[in-house]
Amino acid sequence: MDFINLHIQEIYFVIFCVFIGIEVIANVPSILHTPLMSGANAISGVILVGAVIVMLRVPEDDYLNLALGGIAVFLGTLNISGGFFVTGRMLKMFSPKK
């Protein structure tokens, strides 16, 4: 209970961001989804580079943080590659038929 009382503003901020994100995504026209996905993939790429840089500063004997960082880098890479795969498939839908 102390954690909630100490971080109540941060909790409200996260809840507010979730509602704003839902409203923004729900009101995006379908024609803009592909460019937005590409932009999100680029942002994820920058975050992945930052995660790798942070992992390089973790001490070698801190196995827990190294494992968590490795999992985070793997999931970030999976997110980026999956996003580009989906974006590529969406772009193929708009290409002229042969």
Structure description:
With 98 residues, the chain is mainly α. The chain is 82% helix and 0% strand. It is built from four helices and no strands. Helix 3 (33-56) runs antiparallel to helix 4 (63-94). The longest helix is centred in the C-terminal third of the chain and has 32 residues, at 63-94. The termini are far apart. The relative contact order is 0.09. The model has no long low-confidence stretch (mean pLDDT 84).
Radius of gyration: 19 Å
Termini Cα gap: 63 Å
Rounded mean pLDDT is: 84
Based on DSSP secondary structure assignment, what is the total number of beta strands?
0
What are the secondary-structure elements, in order, as H or E?
Answer: HHHH
In the predicted model, the low-confidence regions spanning at least 5 consecutive residues are none
Describe the structure concisely:
This is proton-translocating NAD(P)(+) transhydrogenase. By secondary structure, the protein is mostly helical.
Topology, please?
Elements: H1 2-6, H2 8-26, H3 33-56, H4 63-94
Membrane topology: Multi-pass membrane protein
GO cellular component, one term: plasma membrane
GO molecular function: NADP binding; proton-translocating NAD(P)+ transhydrogenase activity
